[in-house]
Amino acid sequence: MYSNLLFLGAIALAAINNVDGFAFKETYPDPGVIPTAKPEWLALLKDANIAKAPVLKVTPGIGPGPVPATDTYCDWTFTGCFGKEDLYQCPKGQWAPTYDDGPSEFSGKLYDELDKTNTKATFFMVGGQVVKFPELTLRAYKAGHELAMHTWSHNYMTSLTNEQIVAELKWNELAIKEVTGVSPRFFRPPYGDIDNRVRDVAKALGFSAVIWTHDTNDWSLTENPNFKASWIDGNVTKWASEAATATSGGVSLEHDLYNVTVDAAVRVLPTFLKSFKVTTVGDCNKQASYKEVAGPGAGSNTTTSSASAAPGSSSAASGKSSSASASASVTAQPQTEKNGAGVLTSGVFGVGMASVLALVLSS
Length: 363
Description:
Strands 3, 4, 5, 8, 9 and 10 form a six-stranded parallel sheet that branches. Strands 1-2 form a two-stranded antiparallel ribbon. The chain contains twelve helices and ten strands. With about 375 residues, the chain is α/β, with parallel strands linked by helices. It has helices at about 5-10, 40, 75-80, 105-115, 125-130, 135-140, 160-180, 195-205, 230-240, 260-275, 280-285, 355-360, and strands at about 55-60, 65, 95-100, 120-125, 145-150, 185, 210, 215, 250-255, 275-280. Helix 1 crosses helix 12, helix 7 packs across helix 8 (about 195-205) and helix 9 runs parallel beside helix 10.
């Protein structure tokens, strides 16, 4: 949910080579840059029935637009519309915490905390981060966490051509498979930005979209100097208090790219565990995590809650944008810009990088 400039600033701290010395066979695109698809990947679209939704323009600080006048093509950014095959919640009594944008140098601390309680979670990994941190990627997989995709360059997907969408997903998939031996089935569009065109392209490649019902707003910790970390705790505490009367379970949005967001994730995990059966998106929706089906991440999560209550609903479940979903919380006060603050495309990667890196290092 971070602005793309801030996200690119974080990954710019990486060297070209991965930090673990893992020997990749494939030569991967530069991190943070929209890649080019291989011809054999594009061939997968040959017989696909793809919606004719327009390729949208991204306005810095606002996001994709303009809003289509007649048909929004079930665009989540504009209408909060969920596609009929989108995954975004769990059954009553279950909760799937999900972590975006990693792995990062801070992810190990979150893995440690999850290991202590034998808790399995879903990680939406960015392709360039997988290439930088292959050992952390492999650790998460071997621990039984569900590995999913968050595209290669973290751009608004409705602003990409069909061919670029293919490249974003397939390079992401390839990096994870080269490290773990498995191909994720699930992807999360950056900023939740998806319409039927994106869904159709992804489906032709064998992927299913995952959104969320509850936003912790942890992304505001690095984007809004007035945002207080305690508001995240307030959000999660409120969701737990609503568990007894909720009609369905939840999927929460968190991040493991920054130290402050990992600290928040570690801090609120016990609240989730006390109130819900904590599980993965695939498990709570009874779907395989990987195209190969088998694998530690495809198994059942044995973590159980100390209560039989179910999570509460949030405004995000009814289709609000990420920043609007904070209205489900009594205390959270994130920025009001759509989908997690202003967004700049990767084309401005070099602009103001020194200040961006300074911000990242101070986080």
